[in-house]
Amino acid sequence: MEAALQSGAPPQSDGSAAARRWWVLGAVVLAQLMVVLDGTVVNIALPSAQTDLGFTDGDRQWIVTGYSLAFGGLLLLGGRVSDMIGRKRAFLAGLVGFAAASALGGAADGFGVLVAARVLQGAAGALLAPTALAVLATTFTAPKERARAFGVFSAAAGAGSAIGVLLGGFLTEGLNWRWTLYINVFIAVVAAAAATVSIGRTPRRGPRPALDIPGAVLVSAGLFALVLGFSEAETDGWASPPSWAPLTASALLLVAFAARQRRTAHPLLPPGVLLDRDRAAGYSGILLASVGMFGVSLFVNYYLQDSLHYSPIRTGLAFLPMVVLLVIGSQLATNVFLPRLGHRRVVPTGMALGAVGMVLLTGLEPDSTYTTGVLPALLLIGFGIGNVITSSFQAGTSGVDPGTIGVASAVVNTSQQIGGSIGTALLNTLATAATGHYLAAHGTSPAATAQAATHGYAVAYWWGAGTYTAGALLTALLYRHKRRPAPQPST
Q: pTM score, two decimals?
């Protein structure tokens, strides 16, 4: 009963309360899946959209960057707004906004409208993503149910990119590129219906918290500049002013934000959220796992389509074994490994498995086969990162005051977003440079060109392996030893 009151739900029988909680899980998982897969499902459709709307290769990156800038820049603000206006209201507003922006993008008759729609999608996602995680953390309080719910949620978050590749191929080939955006409307309607009947309103305790507007401006501008700098580095290189100027501005803005949070009476991000060792380890795990996962989703995708000549649909199907192992890893982590071993053993082990999978990918040649070359690595990475993601999501939201759970959830999502941006810029730049050096040394014959591509991918995989190794060491140092769980209040 107490758990129901904490989540804002009306008093009800245990059976009815349990049913409502699982409806909440369904709504939250659908919302998270929609936000995560949108990043890759639209990427698959970009060539078709470019042909249809007639924009240039230089313009094309803004379809991706516009979403990333708004999403990454506004996440912390979205999490704080969720704490202020209530999680149910924020969740439904995020769903409606995301659906409306997706419909606008699907109906776009020109480049400008499509970019505007993607920016609006990112803004709505910045409200929706942290709210979804906050709803989950406050709805499931019993340890066993919480573990199961976070396992399902983490599987959706981790598998979303791979599912997006598959779904994008089916929609683009079977219908047209516009359906990669229209599909969000149907997902949002189902999620909103489930949320309306299952999520209770959270009763406010005390006065409405104030919004630190200067802090919101500083952190939003800082994260915006950070994502912009990484995006520019991907295309222009790290030495170009469009890359280092935003990154420098980002560092200054984020330092100013941190200084303000220590002295303001109503911090947007209370320092205590970050200073807990287990939560810091959770945020670090999500960030580094996202950096490495980019190498899998991007470069394996390139390899399958360019070297093995897979179609988009077949490429998506090739990722399914990794998705299955990711789901299995998430469930085993929450139900078996974490209760027995704790985060300090589970997360570094998952990172190590991911590193081994990355090393296996470095051995791919232009004539390697999927079964013997790609599949074993995908299985290892999927299982390992499934353990990392679900463990990190739980740690990142554990022990947080209910009044700041939204912003703590936003830090989790920000870590995931920034990790993806770093992976995009860093690994792609390294792979491109390695490919260019190989071609300069070996010529541009068809055989040399094919070998140069796999050489570039291998360099990215080695860096991905190094990232996972660093993640294993860092999280092993940060996580506390396994503690006996605190007694739960009686219901």
A: 0.79
